[in-house]
Design brief:
The complex is a heterodimer.
Chain A: E1 4-11, H1 15-27, E2 33-36, E3 47-51, H2 56-66, E4 72-79
Antiparallel strand pairs in A: 1-3, 1-4, 2-3
Chain B: E1 2-3, H1 15-27, H2 37-57, E2 65-68, H3 71-82, E3 88-92, H4 97-110, E4 113-117, H5 128-132, E5 138-144, H6 156-165, E6 169-173, E7 192-196, E8 208-212, H7 250-266, H8 268-286, E9 292-295, E10 307-312, H9 317-328, E11 330-331, H10 340-346, E12 354-357, H11 364-379
Parallel strand pairs in B: 1-11, 3-4, 3-5, 5-6, 6-7
Antiparallel strand pairs in B: 2-8, 7-8, 9-10, 10-12
Helix pairs in contact in B: 1-7, 2-7, 3-4, 8-11, 9-11
The chains are: A alpha+beta, B alpha/beta.
Chain lengths: 80, 380
């Protein structure tokens, strides 16, 4: 099993928002990928964006500037 | 077969559409239901298609593009999800049953009052009638962009301006115009645009949807699986999830996406000009034949879709269409076309009418063959 490390996790109210996020990040070469939503945020299903925690400030600013809706943001220990 | 029933569905599709559906069926999982590669492939394809539809129709937000199985479902969602008891709605005689029956349902079961802008014997409306029918409780205008029977296009700039001036919701059925007539929700002040994927957009059957203007609040028509917030007892309120309970037709949507690429590369206006040319060739070829009656306004400058609807003598339209199919191998549509009010307006409720409708894939030789067939039947 891989070691756990801290990651920034961003969740969304709709899958379409997650896809908008992925497209936005890919177009700008921003790091990260979509993962199933971790239970620490909420149980159930859905998609979350997983990226490096040091990206948080720049990330939040760019999402707000782009008008991309996100639901919650947290730093969690996840498998690398 | 010479296929001239494109107002029902464009039977000939671009090869890229067929290839895209096959590829989707070979490779795609369930979009929005997991984060593995095949699920994400479907999610990405669906999201890309939302963006393309939003761009085509001038919808400001891709997440306000909702996918349904056809425009009838989209119209049901809009009409039943926006109207309340006591509301008054203005519609027109040009409508298809996909508009009429949801409206009649709301009238009978939910106390919604209806009025219809009349069509004259040519199937044309007087735009002043929209204003005359407005009451204090009028909530919406629900209308087609073009008659599926005569091809008459309603001027959505005019109707949208009336809706804006009186703070009414404009709900549009674009089944006959999506992909072959310019549509811009912002310019036309459209609150909800309902479309189908399998006609002028050249996508697969089983695709369609609605584009919703920001701020328009539609109650869900169905609730259920959303792929998100599974422990919540209620449907998530955000668009598009709010109105998309259950697995989407991602295979079909992938085909629609390829069709939208085909349209963008070919050009909506290029397609419209070509179809219009074929329609006028056919019209000019049959208009002076003895016993042929054509419905609608074909005068120069009058905007219309590529449809010519006619009758021959007093022959039953079903018999004429069957003759065309059996002896000339030409596919047309007879009967009532799910447009009862328009047939009453034209006076064709008993005879019906035979509709010839053209597409990008119709050839000039096919049009010439159709002219010859009508001539032979008319001259008996």
């Amino acid at each position: 099993m891989r070691q756990k490390k801290p990651y920034l996790v961003v969740t969304f109210a709709a899958t379409a928002d997650a896809m908008a996020m992925e497209r936005y990040c890919m177009e700008r070469n921003l790091p990260g990928r979509l993962i199933p939503i971790p239970r620490e945020i909420h149980a159930g299903c859905g998609l979350a964006w997983k990226t490096q925690p040091e990206e948080k400030e720049a990330f939040t600013a760019s999402l707000e500037e782009a008008g991309i809706r996100w639901e919650a943001m947290a730093v969690l220990e996840l498998w690398g | 077969m010479i296929y001239l029933d494109n107002a029902a569905t464009t039977q000939r599709k671009p090869q890229c559409v067929i290839d895209a559906v096959v590829e989707a069926m070979n490779t795609m999982g369930n979009g929005g239901r997991g984060a593995h590669g095949t699920a994400l492939k479907a999610s990405r394809a669906v999201y890309d298609t939302r963006r393309k539809i939003a761009e085509l129709f001038g919808c400001t937000r891709p997440d306000h593009v909702i996918f349904t199985s056809n425009s009838t479902e989209a119209l049901n969602i809009a009409i039943r999800g926006l109207l309340n008891p006591g509301d008054h709605v203005i519609s027109t005689d040009l409508e298809h049953n996909s508009v009429l029956r949801p409206l009649y349902y709301m009238e009978e079961h939910h106390g919604v009052a209806l009025d219809f802008v009349p069509a004259n014997k040519q199937g044309l409306v007087d735009y002043a009638d929209f204003e005359k029918l407005i009451r204090p409780e009028t909530k919406a205008i629900v209308c087609t962009h073009a008659s599926n029977l005569t091809g008459e296009i309603l001027d959505l700039h005019k109707i949208g301006a009336i809706a804006k001036a009186h703070d009414l919701l404009l709900i549009v059925d674009a089944s006959q115009t999506g992909g072959c007539v310019h549509i811009d929700m912002k310019e036309m002040n459209i609150a909800v645009l309902c479309f189908t994927g399998h006609k002028g957009l050249y996508g697969p059957q089983g695709t369609g949807g609605l584009c919703i203007r920001e701020g328009v609040d539609i109650r869900p028509f169905k609730v259920g699986g959303s792929g998100i917030h599974s422990y919540s007892k209620v449907q998530p309120p955000e668009y598009p999830t709010r109105l998309e309970a259950g697995t989407l037709n991602s295979h079909g949507i992938m085909g629609l996406s390829a069709a939208l690429d085909f349209l963008a590369e070919t050009g909506v206006q290029t397609i419209a000009d070509y179809e219009h040319k074929l329609m006028m060739t056919f019209y000019n070829g049959v208009v002076d034949l003895p016993g042929v009656t054509i419905y609608g306004d074909f005068s120069e400058g009058h905007t219309r879709t590529a449809v010519v609807t006619l009758n021959i003598h007093d022959y039953d339209s079903s018999a004429v269409s069957d003759e065309l199919a059996e002896y000339f191998d030409i596919a047309t549509r007879p009967g009532a076309h799910c447009a009862p009010r328009m047939h009453y307006a034209l006076g064709t409720q008993e005879q019906g009418a035979v509709r010839f409708s053209f597409s990008w894939f119709t050839t000039e030789e096919e049009v010439d063959a159709a002219i010859a067939a009508v001539k032979e039947i008319a001259e008996g």
